[in-house]
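Following up on my earlier thread - several people asked me to post the actual chain instead of describing it. Fair enough. Here it is, all 259 residues.
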Amino acid sequence: MTRSVLLSTMVLQMKQSFVRPMYQFCLIVSPILNTVLLYEMFRNSGNADFASYVILGSGLMSLWSCICFSSAGDINRERFSGTLALIFAAPAAFPAIILGKILGNTVLSLASILISMVTALILYQAPLHLESPGYFLIALVGMIGSFVVISSVIACLLTLSRRTTLYMNCIEIPFILLCGMSFPIDVLPKWLQMVSRCLAPTWAVELLRMTVHGISDTALFWRNFAIMAGLSTALAIFSAWLYKTIDRAVRIKATLEVC
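Reply from S.P.:
Thanks for posting it. Predicted structure:
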């Protein structure tokens, strides 16, 4: 039953997300604008990772925006539609429904990376060469997992909040900066670098960039992958605990409605 719930929710979520104007902007227009912005930032920098930061960076920034505004916004939309309490108490497990929504958003949002590649190729004749495509696919799967897990935590935290719109606007840009999507985290203060290294998507972004130039040290790749997987697993455990805590609070206080 859980598998059918996940698949049906994914398909429905992809259809609903794509017809929303805000999501269309994040998915289609945002990667184009981000590519132009990052190209102008990096074109005279002499950075060896120029292509990966412009193309991958712009795609990942748009990917996170889509996930952030969809996964967080879905809780708000369900609440104001009067259906949040219904899906919470439905026979299908609430985490399975939310996970299906997040997976649908994430899979659909992967198109933003492709749009960034096409934009860079058309406007700047800067194709993205993957020296290690096999490792790239592995890193991409790991990145999807890390984004899904952190989105699940955010969705759980916002289930009880009435300020969903405020919080999802506040977390978008800081997350992009901390995870090194737009520039290397090495330029951040030391204490912020420590925070960045505690986020699984930071390692996923680093893995993706490693695959662009080719994996010369496979041990380093798998070490970083293990760190990313460990952080994602810890966050998944925290998400499960958080849901149980919220589930108990909701059943006692009945605070899921708008008022």
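The chain has eleven helices and no strands. That should answer part of your original question.
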